[in-house]
Amino acid sequence: xxxxxxxxxxVRNLPxxxxxxxxxxxxxxxxxxxxLGLSRLARLLFAAGAEYLFSPLVGGEPLTSASQAQALESxxxxxxxxxxxxxxxxxxxMGGNGTAGITDSHGAMKGVDGLWLNDSSILPETPGINPxxxxxxxxxxxxxxxxxxx
Length: 150
Fold this sequence. Notes:
Elements (H helix, E strand, L loop, with lengths): L9 E4 L6 E4 L4 H20 L18 H6 L60 H18 L1
Antiparallel strand pairs: 1-2
């Protein structure tokens, strides 16, 4: 089951600061999906032999059984979910010829000669699964294209 957020985030430059402001609205449906994912992961870990899991929820008690893991499904709230983003996907999405992407399909920035992007920022959207394999495959393909262009 692919679990994805129902909305899109926004990344903006902050004037004066050398930082970016990242905003991502989290809907009640997103919290429900997060709870479902946490519950499934915890139950999987218990099935694999885990005896003790630290709750990812703020103030949450440690889990010692699969039945406690099941309760995570409905336990996630705005108050106890500590959400962060480590990898920002799709901030400079790729596109083909004539499409609205910021880069071409190989990561070359449109309108800026010599600038190539080669990370998860060029994905057209967050994939909803661990994107490591996809990013590595794109990186290799894009690096080969870049080498051919030199």
